[in-house]
What does this fold into?
Amino acid sequence: MTHETGQKPKLHHAAKLYARECQDGRLSRREFMTRATALGVAAPAAYGLLGLAAPEAKAQTPQMGGTVRIQMDVRAQRDPRTWDWSELANTCRGWLEYLVQYNRDGSITPVLLESWDANDEATEYTLNIRQGVTWNNGDPFTAEDVAHNFERWCDSSVEGNSMASRLGAIMQDGQLRDGAVEVVDDHTLRLHLSNADITILTGLADYPAAVVHPSFDGDPIRNPIGTGPYRPVSYDTGIGAIIERNPDHSWWNAGNGAWLDRIEFIDLGTDPAAWVAAAEGGEIDMLYETTGDFLSIFSAIGMEQTEAITSATLCVRFNQGNPPYDNRNVRRALQLAVDNAQVLELGYNDQGIMAENHHVCPVHPEYAELPPLEVDRERARAMLEEEGHGDTEFELISSDETFHSDTCDNVAAQIRAAGINIRRTILPGATFWGDWLTYPFSATSWAMRPLGVQVLNLAYRSGEAWNESAFSNAEFDDLLEQANGIVDADERRELMARLQEIMQEEGVSIIPYWRSLFRHARADIHGAEMHPTFEIHYQNYWMS
Amino acid sequence: MVSFLLRRIGIMLVTALCLTFIVFYLTNLPAKLDTLAKTQAGSRISDAEVASWLDRNGYSQPMLVRYGEWLGVVPGWTRVEADGTQTGRCNSLTAPTDIAATPERCGLFQGYWGNSTRFRAPVSEVISARLGATGLLMMWVLIVMVPMALIVGVLAGMREGSRTDRALSTFAIASTATPEYVSGVVFIALLASSSIGVSPLLVSWGWIEGPVLFQGNARSALQQITFWNFALPVMTIALFGMGYIARITRASMTEVMTQQYIRTARLKGVSFANIVLRHALRNALIAPFTVIMLQIPWLLNGVVIVEVLFSYPGFGWTLFEAAANNDIELLLAASVVAVLVVLVTQLISDIGYVWLNPRIRIS
It folds into this structure.
């Protein structure tokens, strides 16, 4: 697999699926546009998928100039590999660039790499470093610099170095394994992995993977040597950060970005009401993230809302180690009684898209489409009676966090509507998380991961530490092992279809929706749509 | 007089010492140190990494020793890393290469306030910059609050029980009974929202150009203070303090107005305005003066709430941030500043009282 320079990201697979659903009348056009654009498809292209011409499809060319003021937490800076908040990365994106970048549509595109290759077993990666890149102190950017970064990332003796947990395949004894990174020539690097790993590139796109200069001393503000087009002017923790275009540096990608003159991050604290006041007074142009009730408030004061689909979700899962959930038909019957669309609407205010009781999201590159789920409450009741559980009282446990308990309340209400006895138990968060792995029937929130196989590995493989559903299926384990060795997403999809099916057939979990993230920005700011991992690529923003 | 001052300063030092020790104890509880390590080295680090971070940064010594280090009576910790470089509490004061020049002790007695872990800067810098911002806020609060309170109090107190008195007293009680976190929010909703309150009306009449009348956020006041971005925070604090001072002034005024010499003046035929301004006022102001001075430390409470509500980075905001992030040395310095403010205002009020009321003498 090779990614060429300047190659446009392919149209997202799921966007095509949505287009077909829309043409079949299963999806409204408005809904289709929301989802397709949330998958990174530009609006004109989305209309194109439906065979329509985009209304006022003006090709807008970016303009130079302007200042954007963004509300965001401005935290004390530190060494990028120890970053634990994406806000820390967002301020530095203008000068600290990455080898590769994770996009809104779930794809990975090269930045400081020109392209990469992997062998068929996914045990050897060749990274072709971009030519003609210089650091802003004038030094040329070479494969040696990248090798130095790999060494830094693999040093697990540094507290909080989260990169080390992503690069286990090239590490040994808490350090970079000798010979794991081979400098072939000035612009080529080869990684020799100890085991097949297809997630290594997504790890390099993650926010702590910013590439730093060999002279880096741990402070990206005082010592802002990087390859990007911007530089910091000031940085006051808790107050704000100011970034301006660097006039003394010629950026490798000049002409394709760095439109804005100046970016100001403003930290107004954690109370969204203060953000509303500042937005109304015209003091901020854009938010880092908008949540909950504030979505409609920011829309009402004239800011534009954008949405990013993520694979974060709430799994209302059964633990198969506990009767009666060791009976597949009981699990299937309870699933059959629940309409996921209703859970999304009433349990989560429609702030996401519907999921299909398996843990692969449309934003994952290897997502495969399956036939829609059916809901049949009468049959659900009948199935339980056949299994002798007609009068059993089930118990659904959740933590007291609002969306957890709302979602579970709705799931329980639907099960009750099928004439099945069910009791709801809500535990305080501190108590709940002590036993989250072993409750017979409870709800767990899962964070976003860029590849579909990642959560399957963590949560559904037999015997895994986080296998909260006690799911164990030889065919599933086998297929997953194979999928873990396939680098190409389209090839992997063939196996994923079956993996997803197994999850549905076995009634592992009620996975009702994928949670979306939202952001508000003024209408004259372009390119600032919400990103599934909260990234703010201000080097690509522009104002009209 | 001199012995009085010395005694007062002595009390101040003892109070500061006790208070800082309490703050030090509370911020150095083991669970708090865990939080500190996690905010500093990464929120998802393991327990072993927490222990190693605490050890490497000098937090593993007994609490009393570290309090002594902070005071500057115990030598600062030092540590030699595996690669031979020396780290230590006092090392940041000199160049890292120049180990010999590093002082043995560095604490309050040496004039070193320590480093803020939240802001990654010397505490003295953070505190002085933020105190400056709060100084401006307090100055405007006093300029608004004191004359308003005195006028309301004097007007209400000159004719006890009159309609003016009833109306002004109701206003004063209402304002002092409304905490800042209520009045601040009401002000924002009423005056700084484009969808509710008066702003949409004014916009539809074409009286104002922007979407809102006042700024509901005072962050821009950091660069430049304008009436529109500073009025709401100032009013929020001033209203709360005003009611109380006005009530005291009224009580003092009514008492003075019943005195024999006022009746004598009236019988002599002096005009009512003259009686109030020339004879009653000075005597009526003794009690409010003390109250105003005592009110200043109280206003520090309001400053915390208002600065956080309006995101104005001053002393109160810093205190909030320091507490929220368990920033030990910044909290200690903030408590020293708070003690200073309380005792200095009390000192001024004692001395001023003597000056205003010749019957009292400090011996």
